[in-house]
Design a protein that fits this description.
7 strands; single chain; 5 helices
């Protein structure tokens, strides 16, 4: 039996194009993924637990999944975090410190509003988590906060690699 490793960036329904919105999974698709995993009896594990299983060559008797969130998008706090709590799952978010919202702020968690069909303002749920929000999810045990890289760097690309070190 194998272990699933699923990685998402953002979980959001967009009403207009936004920078990086192509990285978003619609809310209902993400929730349906969690529902199927729950129905099929999957349990979430961390990457450390996956590493330990592989290193120690443990026999896998449970259905296991690793859920990863990349870059620390705000909707990981406002939508994904309460949804994971609802379904009893855990995840790991990989945060680039350059992308963290520097304000001392905690935004409203809107998953329940979405579930009830209430309108939310997508602009208020788009961007990156603050340090306060990251501390909350990390302390909860639901989402483990880990380092990504200080930022994303765009590397020049072309048909020939020339002098990569400089």
């Amino acid at each position: 039996m194998g272990i699933l490793v699923l990685t998402f960036h953002s979980v959001m329904n967009h009403d207009k194009p936004r920078p990086w919105s192509f990285l978003s999974t619609p809310v209902d698709i993400f929730e349906n993924t969690l529902k199927v995993l729950k129905k099929k009896g999957y349990k979430t594990i961390s990457l450390q637990e996956l590493y330990d299983i592989k290193k120690e060559k443990k026999k896998i008797t449970d259905k296991l999944v690793v859920l990863n969130l990349d870059d620390g998008f705000l909707d990981n706090y406002t939508i994904v975090y309460p949804m994971l709590k609802k379904y009893g799952f855990k995840a790991t978010v990989y945060v680039s410190p350059d992308f963290v919202d520097p304000r001392g702020i905690k935004r409203e968690q809107v998953y329940e509003k979405i579930r009830k069909g209430e309108r939310i303002e997508p602009d208020n749920n788009w961007g990156y988590m603050s340090w306060d929000e990251l501390c909350e999810i990390d302390a909860s045990g639901v989402i483990d906060v880990q380092g990504h890289a200080i930022t994303h760097t765009w590397y020049p690309a072309g048909p020939i690699l020339v002098d990569f070190q400089e």
